[in-house]
Amino acid sequence: MEPRNLTLEPTVTFSNSQMPALITNTGQKIPQLGLGVYKVTPDIGVDLVRLAIGNGYRRIDTAALYDNEPEIGAGVRTSGVDREELFVTTKIWNDRQGYPEVFDAVEESLNRLNIGYLDMLLIHWPAPAQGKFVETWRAFEELLDKGRVRGIGVSNFNPEHIEELIESSNVIPAINQVELHPGLQQAEVRAINQKFGILTEAWSPLARARMNDEGVIQSISSRTGKTPAQVILRWHIQLGNLVIPKSSNPDRLSENIDVFDFELTETDMASIATLENGNRIGPNPADFS
Ligand code: NDP
Question: Is the distance from the beta carbon of residue 202 to the nearest atom of ligand 1 less than 6 Å?
Fold first, then answer.
């Protein structure tokens, strides 16, 4: 018998074939569930990314703001999984918007990540008071055209920002990443995204664990034998959202990806929909610069 390997190994080996991919309006395939790394500190970044990839995660969502791009990139490079099988997103912070200023910001992110190319580049917030998101997008279109990035999208765009962007540009964003969880279901944003063929991606999909004790979630959890977080993540999956839960905890990392072996009923989906309360975790994008 072979000796057991007692080094740190993924606690669950997730079968990647079970995870659906969504297809963007330019034909990119995006694994529906990925790892968010906001507040993942540099000291654990490399190990966390390697562990996540070992557990079956194939997508990582970072940002210049998160101050961990070098560690995320190192984790990707040393994961043992081909770069082409992984999907990495980063975002440009508000103070780097503008044409031509944003080009330098993107090169800096690419250098920090050091993974050859970006799968997805997002405008982090529309910051409408600055009035620069349309010119920033023009630079994004050029970066896409030149192949520096493989996909471009936006984040925190309200319907009015999406409409203004589309009226004044050539390329429709591939995704719009917004705050979205059972307390803030973003019906209007989802509708306009759908109208223009933009994928909706949910940030703070677990509402930072604030809704785990809701009776509706608890009762579905008891019936299905799944945790509250898994119930909420499954709700996102069945709504067709891209979803990027964050965890720095190995057990919760495994738990959050283990949502492809059960289904919520229509009644479950309708019950979770009653949890809408309009409360945001982050600011309203209309007011944030
Ligand atoms: P999440 O809704 O993903 O919640 C993360 C929090 O919930 C952490 O405190 C985590 O703690 C805890 N948690 C994770 N899994 C579980 C679980 N199974 N059970 C109980 N608690 C759990 O919030 P985030 O704000 O981190 O959003 C996710 C990602 O979205 C970010 O990491 C980032 O990539 C992106 N984002 C984008 C924004 C934007 O403006 N575009 C804004 C904010 C986030 P622990 O780590 O200890 O497990």
Answer: no
Residue 87 near residue 117 (C-beta atoms within 8 A): no
Residue with tokens 């949890």: 275
Active site residue: 38, 66, 99, 117, which one?
Answer: 66
In which band, very low, low, confident or very high, does the pLDDT at 239 lie, cut at 50, 70 and 90?
A: very high
CA 71 to chain centre: 18
**Torsion sign, CA atoms 63, 69, 73, 74:** negative
36 ligand 1 Cβ < 6 A: yes
Q: Is 66 an active-site residue?
A: yes
Beta-strand ranges (E) seen in the chain are 21-23, 29-31, 35-36, 59-61, 87-92, 120-123, 152-155, 175-179, 199-203, 242-243
91 conformational bin, left if phi > 0, alpha if psi -120 to 50, beta if neither = beta
Pocket-testing residue among 47, 59, 203, ligand 1, by greatest number of atoms within 8 A of Cβ: 203
Cβ of residue 256 lying under 6 Å from some atom of ligand 1: yes
- Mind listing the pLDDT tens digit for each residue in 149-179? 999 999 999 999 999 999 999 999 999 999 9
Q: How far is the CA of 245 from the centre of ligand 1 (A)?
A: 5
Cα 201 to Cα 65: distance, rounded to the nearest angstrom:
18
Ligand 1, atom 24, lies closest to the CA of: 204
